[in-house]
Amino acid sequence: MQRVIKCDKCQKDFIQKWINRKKQWSQINEISYWTDGKKWKSYKFFCRSCLNDWFELEREEFDKLIVDEKKRRIYASYRGHGAFDKSDASN
Ligand SMILES: [Zn+2]
After folding, report:
1. Residue 32: inside a domain, yes or no?
2. What predicted TM-score, i.e. pTM, was given to this entire model?
3. Domain for residue 10, yes or no?
4. Which of 6, 18, 20, 64 allows an S-S link to 1, with CB 3.0 to 4.6 Å?
């Protein structure tokens, strides 16, 4: 199962996947997942390329918001595996 949602940063539609094992939508695209509930501007959902830009282009914000070591490791591992480079466009 998957649904199409809009990236709050670039305004593009992207696909969020349902994770059966966890019985919830993939949290990779949710800002609050990474920040442990902290808000970043009014952003809620990020597409993969904006997630990548977060680290690359807005490192200061990234470092301020993602303070959980475990989350930082998960993020680094996604980046390392190229997960943020994959296309998740809906069309
Ligand atoms: Zn985006």
Report:
1. yes
2. 0.86
3. yes
4. 18
